[in-house]
Please model this.
Amino acid sequence: MKLPGTVRTRFTVLYTSLFLASGALLLALAAAFASGSRIAEAVPGSVPEQTEAGPAQERIDDLERRLAQADEDQARQILKGSAWALAVMGVASIGLGRLVAGRVLRPLRTMTVTTRRISADNLHERLAVTGPADEVKDLADTVDDLLERLEGAFASQRRFVANASHELRTPLTTMRAALDVTAAKPGPVPERTRVLVGRLRTELDRVDHLLDGFLVLARTQHGAFGDAARVRLDLLLSEALAVRAEETAAKGLTVLRDRENGPADVWGSASLLGRVVENLVDNAVRHNDHGGRLRADVCAEGDAVRLVVESGGPVLDEEQVAGLGRPFSRLGTDRTGGEHGSGLGLSIVAAITAAHDGVMEMRPGSEGGLRVTVVLPRAPGASGASGAPGASA
Model:
C-alpha cells in the first residue's frame, strides 16, 4: 500500500499503525488468557466433588457462581478499559509519531535548505553535518564531496575560458600588426593584397569580438562584481540607442519609446548591465528588416525594473525562439550574416541577467521579429540624480 503525503506524514502513519497493531495484539492476548483461566475453572473435576447435597453445599455453589461472575465482570471491565486506553493512546500516538518523525527528519531538512542555498556562485559552502557516523552523515559527506568536485569543475572551466581568451589575444594582436605593416608598405600595394588584408582584418575583428564574449561569460559566471553600484538602466538604454543612431538611420528603422516613467535604478555591475542593453539593441538593429521598427522601453514597476527590446522581422515560432539563449544558437544565415555576429549576444544577456537575480524572457513579436524582456530587481531606496554614464550618484 502506498502511503500518502510527505515523508513525515508517512512516518507518522507508520508509527501510529505499529503502535495500534502492537496494542491490539497485547489486548487480544490478555483477553485470551482471561478466557482460558475461566475455562479452566469451569472444567469438571477442577473443584472437589461433594458427595452429599445440603444447605452448606448449596451455599458453597452459590458463592462459587458469584465469584465466577465477579471474575468475568472484572475481566470484561479490564478489557473495556484497556480498549479505551488503547484508543486514547492511538490518538496520542499520532502527535507523538509526528514529533518523532520531525526529530528524525530534522537533519535532512537542514541539508535540503543548505543545498538549495548553494548555487554555482557559492559552491565553496558545505553541509558540514556533525554527529554520529550514521546514514544521514554519510549522505551529507557524499553531497559535500559532490559539491567539492563541482566547485573544481566550475573553477577549471572559468580559468580555461579566461586564460584561453587572454592568451589568444596576443597572436591576434601580432597578426593585426602584421597586416597593418603589409598595408602600410611604401609603394603601390596590389589590389589583391589590399582585398586580402581587408578580409583578414574583418575576420580578426570577429574573433576578437568572440573572445570578448567569452571573457564576459567567464566573468559573469564567476559572480564577483567589483564595480557593483546603483545603475540607471534608462540612461544606459538612451546611450546605447544614441551610439547606434547612425546605423539605425541607415536601415530606416523607426525607434519607439513610450513606456519610460522616470529613473529606473537597479543594483549591479554598470559595465555588465551596459553590455546587456548594448547586446539587445545590437541584436534588434542587426537582425531587423530594412525600414522596420525597434521598440525599446524601460519601466519601473514596483520592486522590479522591466527592460523590453522588440525588433521587426519575419514571424518566428516558439521553437526557434527557445534556443536563442544558448551560446552560438542562431536563426539561419539570414540572422547571422553580419560581420560582427558571434552567436553569444543573447546568451551573454541571459548569463548577466541571471547573475543579477533577474529573469530574461524571449518570445516572438506581436507583428514578427523578436521580443526580449529583462526583469531586474529594483535598487533599494529612492533614485538619485545621474552621475557617471549609466550610474546614478
Q: What stands out?
A: The beta strands are 228-232, 254-256, 265-269, 293-301, 304-311, 359-364, 370-377.
